[in-house]
Design brief:
Blueprint lengths: L1 H17 L8 E7 L2 E2 L4 E6 L7 E4 L5 E3 L1 E2 L9 E8 L22 E4 L4 E7 L7
Parallel strand pairs: 1-9
Antiparallel strand pairs: 1-2, 1-5, 3-4, 3-7, 4-6, 7-8
Length: about 130
């Protein structure tokens, strides 16, 4: 009986350890408009799959951001996304934001691989991502 209990606890520990952040990779970068950093601006990755998860980030004074799930966990699931920009009304960098990148009309698309994406440079003066 003790053996069954131990095996059951180990199985639960394995399942719990694998859930939540399975497959999540780090994504970070910098959002600018030309050479100017965009502060306080939201960077959103919206999954192509309507049932897929989307991710959010917010730029600091230098325009740098990290992506998180809506549950506050750092990282992104690999897959294809539309990159959208959102602007809070009080965003210091709001005046620099290209209106074409706001919402579903955004032409920016990215495919996140299992390696993640770091030092990603997003320049709002460009129509597409390199």
């Amino acid at each position: 009986m003790n053996r069954r209990l131990v095996c059951g606890c180990l199985a639960l520990a394995l399942v719990a350890g694998c859930s939540g952040s399975k497959g999540v990779v780090p994504v970070s970068g910098r959002l600018t408009s030309g050479d100017k950093p965009c502060e306080g601006v939201g960077v959103n990755l919206v999954a192509d799959d309507p049932m897929g998860q989307s991710f959010i980030g917010s730029t600091n004074a230098d325009g740098r951001f990290e992506m998180y799930s809506f549950h506050g966990k750092k990282g992104v699931l690999p897959g294809p996304y539309r990159v959208q920009i959102s602007i809070p009304l009080d965003a210091p960098g709001g005046g620099l934001v290209n209106q074409k990148l706001i919402g579903q009309q955004s032409p920016w698309r990215v495919s996140i691989t299992d390696k993640g994406l770091s030092e990603w440079n997003l320049d709002m003066t460009k129509e597409s991502l390199d």
